[in-house]
Amino acid sequence: MSSNQSNTQNGSEQKEKVSESAQTSLSKKTETITPEFESSIVNQLVTRFTDKVVQVVYVRPGRTKILVPPNEIVQVATFLKDTLKFDHAESVSGTDYPKDNQIEVIYHLSSYSDEKLSSHVLALSTRVDRNDSRMPTLIDVFKSTEYHERETFEMLGVYFEGHPRNERFLLPEDWADIPPLRKEFRIKGR
Amino acid sequence: MGLEIVKETEEDRLMTLSVGPQHPGSGHFRFTIKVDGDYVVYCDPDPGYVHRGEEKMCEYRNFIQNIPHLERPVIHDSTNITYSYSLAVEELTNIQVPLRGQYIRALASELNRQVYTLYWLGIYGIFLGHSTMFMWPVGDRELFIDLLEALTGARVTHAYNIPGGVRNDMPEGFKDRCLRQVAYFEKRLVEYEDIFYNNPLFRQRTEGVGILTKEDAIKLGVTGSVLRASGIPFDVRKAEPYDIYNEIDFKVQYMKTGDSFARSMVPFLDMRESCQIIRTLLDKMPQSGEVRAKLQPNPKGPAGESYKRVESGRGALGYYIVSDGTPKPYRVKLSVGSFRNILALPYLLIGSKLADMPSIYWSLNYWPVEADR
Fold first, then answer.
1. CATH code for the part of the protein at A20-131
2. Which residue of B has its CA nearest to A118?
3. Does residue B184 carry a pLDDT above 90?
4. What is the chain A residue with the closest CA to B235?
5. Cβ within 8 Å, pair B239-A113
6. Helix axis angle, B174-192 relative to B260-284, nearest 10°?
7. Band of pLDDT at residue A190, cut at 50, 70 and 90
């Protein structure tokens, strides 16, 4: 395994609870590499929404990740779409963190209409309570999330409030078990 | 007791049809449509017939063990589906790929994209009733399968990309053989154009059918040939070059009409461009050197996450991998082109004629097994 300088900020977001302010995490990043364009995007977000709402998880060349509370996600997404020109979601996924009793839902956003953004993927993430996992849908902001959110609903049991169809999509209609991508679901025999 | 007169309602006129999963024209995929006379008024995709839980399986195996089963969703494009996985794992575990390894990897992915596109073209041809266009691409596909067999040792599922490079070096005399077969294939492409793309019957059935405008393509977030057919020249190889693609000069092929014809033409133009890319890659490739980095027996890196994408036969193919510092990934998410493009199916089918269904559905470059994962 050779050494690599570009990975010092490899934010282990389940342990390093993203509590430090956006400014410190940004200045830490700029010591190693200076992704100026990426920093300008998150700076705009933090200026608009304060660092209590938008927490910056990491800034790397071409990739940024922010964490927002579920009740603010629609406003942040609208700002991302209208002002920063992120126009579609490439993927919506969820990660189960039983230790924190949380499920992280991540929207990977990118842009076709703005050429400068085409190499950039912004991860808009939020964390919902594992026992009462519900959050507002982003389908009105990004139409492209429709099937992805439906998949996240059945695979992780996150209920998207306002989504027209929180229904089975890939799983069988008679699936009668817990959502399979939760960590307590075990594959038989493993 | 008098006779009751029942008036025909709107609902009575509609007929519900279930297309698939056994129907040969759908693949392992079902969608329900309602028709009013000739016109489709409702469409509801129902994937999942070949869902195998790839993402869950990944959590039980280490980074290297995951490669063979991850190419099962799309065995005809198996090099590309493991490409972005390798890129993501390399970022997580800090592995640098040697230059020759990068070139061979790109070469294998170009050859494999041809295999996939030819297979797709064969299916597209046969479902539009053009059986020559089934026989020819499936026959010519053997050219590239043979090349990949010589390169990787396997005909279809190669498991060739690994984090750190490729599994083995090119065999002796591969370059000449590759150049010869690509030159032959380019002549065949001219014949394809004559017999298929310039066929008036084919053009009638596809031109002006299922138009996806530029704005809607962006809104629906489609990718690959569907996106480029709607006038957006977006190709991951150009937009965000991975490995050595920033040194390869090529044009992103796109069209502006956004109809089924454009969606079937763009993969064809891609194949032609890909022949050029293969030549450039063979030309620029370092003649000797390592093809893969030395790996630990069980590679692992610090906890973190990575999102990497490549351009596959069906568009951007992304992997989102979360690692908790152990040799097994904590979470793997595949964002595949098929799953993204199927959002456009109800949008395009509703309002079009039932007879246009095959030409719209197959032009979406949809691979059911990949979408289900």
1. 3.30.460.80
2. B239
3. yes
4. A118
5. no
6. 160
7. low
Interface contact flag, B218 A112, Cβ < 8 Å: yes
Q: What is the pLDDT of residue B24?
A: 66
What confidence tier does A105 reach under pLDDT thresholds 50, 70, 90? very high
Number of domains comprising chain B: 1
Compute the average pLDDT of residues B286-297: 84
pLDDT at A6 exceeding the cut of 80: no
Domain membership of residue B19 (yes or no) is: no
Contacts of B93 in chain A (CB under 8 A): 1
What is the chain B residue with the closest CA to A144? Answer: B220
Pairing, β B161-162 against β A134-136: unpaired
Given an 8 Å threshold on Cβ–Cβ distance, is A108 in contact with B56?
no
DSSP for B298-351, written as a single string: S----SEEEEEEEEETTEEEEEEEEE-SSSSEEEEEEE-HHHHHTTHHHHHHTT
Per-residue pLDDT tens for B115-150?
Answer: 999 999 998 888 888 888 889 999 999 989 999 999
Domain locations along chain A = 20-131
Convert the pLDDT of each residue in B78-123 to its tens digit.
Answer: 899 999 999 999 988 888 889 889 999 999 999 999 999 999 999 8
Distance from the Cα of A30 to chain B's closest Cα (Å) equals 18
Task: Tell me the residues of chain A between 88 and 117 that have a Cβ less than 8 Å away from chain B.
Answer: 88-91, 93, 95-96, 106, 108, 112-113
Q: Is residue B354 part of a domain?
A: yes
pLDDT of the residue at B183? 92
Q: Residue B2: inside a domain, yes or no?
A: no
- Chain B CB within 8 Å of residue A4 CB: yes
- ∠B169-B175-B179 over CA atoms, to 5°? 145
pTM: 0.84
Are A90 and B340 a contacting pair at CB < 8 A? yes
Whether B1 maps to a domain, the answer reads no
Residues of chain A found within 8 Å of residue B304, distances taken between Cβ atoms:
7, 10-12
Q: At what angle do helices B260-284 and B99-127 cross, to 10 degrees?
A: 150
3-state DSSP assignment of residue B226: helix
CB contact under 8 A, A108 and B218: no
**pLDDT at B319 (0 to 100):** 92
Tell me the chain A residues in contact with residue B322 when contact means C-beta distances shorter than 8 Å.
95
Q: Is the pLDDT of residue B189 over 60?
A: yes
Q: Do B320 and A142 touch (CB under 8 A)?
A: no
Is residue B301 within 8 A of residue B92, CB to CB? The reply is: yes
Measured between beta carbons, the chain A residues lying within 8 angstroms of B318 are 90-91, 108, 121
CA–CA separation, A60 and A29 (whole Å): 8
Which residue range(s) make up the domain with B261?
10-14+25-372
Contacts of A87 in chain B (CB under 8 A): 218-219, 221
Is residue B281's pLDDT more than 50? yes
Backbone angles phi, psi at B222, to 5 degrees: -70, 170
Q: Which long-range contacts (CB under 8 A, 24 or more apart) does B173-176 make?
A: B174/B147, B174/B150, B175/B282
Which residue from B21, B164, B27, B20 is spatially nearest to B104, judged by alpha carbons? B164
pLDDT band for position A14 (cuts 50, 70, 90) = very low
Q: CA of B304, closest CA in chain A: separation in Å?
A: 5
CATH of the domain at B157: 1.10.645.10
